[in-house]
Amino acid sequence: MQTIQNPATGKTIDGAKVTTSRMFDNYSREAAEGQRKALLSHLNTYGRITTMEAREMGILSPNGVIYRLRKRGHRIKTERVKVDGHRVASYRLMTPEEIAAEEEKCHERADK
Questions:
Q1: pTM (2 decimals)?
Q2: What's residue 72's pLDDT?
Q3: Structural domain includes residue 40
Q4: Does residue 62 lie within any of the structural domains?
Q5: Which residues of 32-65 are buried (b: 16+ CB within 10 A; e: fewer)?
Q6: Domain count of the fold of the chain
Q7: What is the CATH number of the domain that holds 92?
């Protein structure tokens, strides 16, 4: 979506002011890295974390953080659990046995 800006006032059609400041460029990267470290530390310490627990830690979108951790090579399993009557995701680190079984399945598929 393109933002249409009045060159004279610097405001968009809806009246919002557009900024070209780069002040917060690194903030999002640093905040995201902090969330990844906090979530991974929790998983290493306690073994699992639910969506609700992650949100209590200030991680509003734990599924996005988990996705990025997986992209970095962390083996994390997602399960659905009920917490206070709500179905939420529960994340845990995979055991070595689960990792070996998953890799074996991949090798079997590749051999076919």
A1: 0.68
A2: 94
A3: yes
A4: yes
A5: eeebbebbbebbeeeeebbbebbeeeebeebeeb
A6: 1
A7: 1.10.10.10
Residue 13 identity: I
Q: How confident is the model at residue 35 (pLDDT cuts 50, 70, 90)?
A: very high
What type of residue sits at position 78? Answer: T
The Cα-based distances of 111 to 99, 103, 105, 106 in angstroms read 19, 12, 10, 9
Determine the number of helices (DSSP H) and then strands (DSSP E) in the chain.
Answer: 4, 3
Q: Is 77 exposed, middle or buried (0-12, 13-18, 19+ CB in 10 A)?
A: middle
99 belongs to a structural domain:
yes
Q: Which residues contact 57 (CB under 8 A, 6 or more apart)?
A: 38, 39, 42
Residue among 83, 69, 76 at smallest CA distance from 99: 76
Structure tokens belonging to residue 75: 């083996």
